[in-house]
Write a structure and sequence with these properties.
The protein has two domains: 174 residues, Response regulator (Rossmann fold, 3-Layer(aba) Sandwich), CATH 3.40.50.2300; 150 residues, Response regulator (Rossmann fold, 3-Layer(aba) Sandwich), CATH 3.40.50. The longest helix is centred in the middle third of the chain and has 18 residues. It has a seven-stranded mixed beta sheet, sandwiched between helices. It is an alpha/beta fold and 331 residues long. Helix 3 links the parallel strand 1 and strand 2. The two termini are 21 Å apart. It contains 14 helices and twelve strands. Helix 8 packs parallel to helix 10. The protein is elongated, with a radius of gyration of 20 Å.
């Protein structure tokens, strides 16, 4: 799906009032969408376009039987709380929760309106649900990954750059994101110890702080980077990729979009498909199913994407076995 299609799908929500009033007799359902990224973030637009596509395939159309209210709160927990309260105040039938602390803040506001998580991280450990099989309460949906995936990032970094002795881990500090950051850090740390690699935290906060942190890290030799899952990593995607290239640092990323924008290598689930599947859960809740009984599902496939052009530019000779196992090689 290209960007024009994404914008077209999302933009259709703006015209709902007149069209909805024109359709008499059909009940209009209401969805609230809470995102922890900027509204103009292309990756977030693509994810929500996949969600809209899933709804359309199930017979839901904005302006006919559906209304959608969006709230965007990039990296601002205070604003996220305010937006969560606003969405709940609109009395939607279902709320779609994006990445980061969206589920956390929504549950602080409502324990009755169904919440569908599109890409939750450790929902049991974070206390969002009772169990994956029987979530209980008002929340269900889809997880992004298990923490063990973070260990795989460390293994990939050593495979593409065996000489790596120092690893900078870029993570979002503080707030509701810290639990996920700690879980990923713990798994990276366990694998790093087996390789004898030294870890260094680099916080994803303001752009100038990220640049200072990566630049300082790059002054010593034998370094590489791992970017963990967070809303901040998407927000600062272009800067991180630019810094990694400038300092010739082999870097492993969590989302395919990083490789398509020049990142060296990514390993993770197809997040857009999570949003498409989330539409199916919204449809089931509309039709009367209880979120407490809808099992929270994990991704069934992880994708390995390699940017060979970037590898050549920073002097990385990609192992033939890794190239052969990649789902996509960008040349």
């Amino acid at each position: 799906m290209n960007r024009r299609q994404c914008i077209s799908l999302l933009g259709g929500a703006a015209s709902w009032p007149l069209a909805a009033r024109a359709q008499q007799g059909e009940r209009v359902r209401r969805i609230g969408v809470l995102m922890n990224t900027a509204a103009d973030e292309p990756e977030s637009q693509a994810r929500l376009a996949a969600f809209m596509q899933g709804l359309q395939e199930l017979g839901w159309a904005v302006g006919r039987n559906l209304r959608i209210d969006y709230r965007w709160s990039p990296g601002d927990l205070g604003r996220l709380r305010k937006d969560a309260a606003e969405l709940v105040g609109l009395h939607p039938d279902v709320i779609l929760a994006g990445v980061g602390p969206t589920t956390f803040v929504l549950q602080q506001v409502t324990r009755t309106i169904p919440i569908v998580m599109a890409q939750a991280i450790d929902p049991v450990g974070n206390g969002y649900i009772d169990s994956l099989a029987q979530p209980g309460g008002n929340t269900t949906g889809f997880t992004q990954f298990e923490y063990s995936l973070a260990g795989k990032w460390m293994e990939l970094l050593k495979e593409v750059a065996p000489g790596t002795r120092r690893v900078g881990v870029l993570r979002e500090p503080g707030g509701a994101a810290i639990a996920a950051a700690i879980g990923q850090w713990t798994m990276i740390q366990a694998v790093a110890q087996s390789f004898g690699a030294e870890l260094k935290l680099i916080n994803l906060q303001e752009a100038n702080e990220i640049e200072r942190g990566v630049t300082a890290f790059a002054r010593s030799p034998n370094g590489g980077l791992i970017v963990v899952v967070s809303a901040a990593s998407l927000t600062h995607r272009e800067l991180i990729i630019t810094l990694a290239a400038r300092h010739r640092l082999p870097t492993v990323y969590p989302y395919r979009v990083f490789a398509s924008h020049g990142g060296l290598i990514t390993y993770g689930p197809d997040i857009a498909s999570q949003y498409r599947h989330a539409a199916g859960y919204v449809d089931r809740i509309f039709k009367g199913e209880n979120p407490a009984s809808l099992p929270v599902q994990a991704p069934t496939k992880y994708e390995l994407v390699i940017n060979l052009k970037t590898a050549k530019a920073i002097g990385i000779d990609m192992p033939a076995t890794l190239l052969a196992s990649a789902d996509e090689v960008i040349d």
